[in-house]
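Exercise: predict the fold of this chain.
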Amino acid sequence: MPLGGREFIMPIFDTLVDTQVLASHLGDRDWVVFDCRFDLANPGAGVADYTRGHIPGAFYANLDQDLAGQRNARNGRHPLPDPMAFAETLGRSGVTSGKQIIAYDSQGGIFAARLWWLARWLGHHAVAVLDGGLPQWMAENRPLSTEIPEGRPTKFKARPRADWVGADFVLENLGRIALVDARAPDRFRGENETLDPVGGRIPGARNRFYRDNLDAAGRFKLPAALKNEFGILLTGASGDQVVHSCGSGVSACHNLLAMEIAGIPGSRLYPGSWSEWCSDPRRPVARGNP
């Protein structure tokens, strides 16, 4: 969705951009594109896929190396990166405050939404996810490239915002916040857990599987549909009362993006999510159906 900005001559895109618009900006030095493909079960698959072919001019952003920080067995599987480190990642690819960032993947936007959230966290609003991602791009027979783009290093000035909360905040506010869990329903119930050592959920959480934000074609549902569905889920809670969680703070960003598309701003991320929460046996756990 376009949004006017003082530093931009043209409208900026701050949630989604479609393939036609991106295609019209290939080669535009004011647009920086990131390929965020990743496979949690095979961490090397994303960069391998990128090497075989990507949207022309796209840089690769690795979930483990670029979109997450150092793990210490207590802060979850994908803790937030140090803000200055992520600012350097953006700067190496030529991002400045006047550039439009576009992120895409091939998994419905789950990893692209993480980059979207991180850029916003550092104060950059001209960032959008490619609606339909690489599958939509390829279905339209648009070009791919194996050429690795040359970086245009610059300095990205980070202005971190208070867009996230920690485990202590969640624990202290159980029952007072609307906690939304983006995992698949079986993992939300504590079943078929394959990524974390303990199955279950944070007590009081509501389940919104991130894939429910997409239509049958793999594109985000229309804003009115998302607003209606989140309205039912949140039962009157306002956006600033919502905290998003998942397994490790990645797919939670997909729900946060969907709420922005729906016109329900102000929600926050719990980046540690279940993988951090379950690392401390003193924290309460719920299982089964709500």
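Check your answer against the key: Confidence is low (pLDDT under 50) at residues 1-9.
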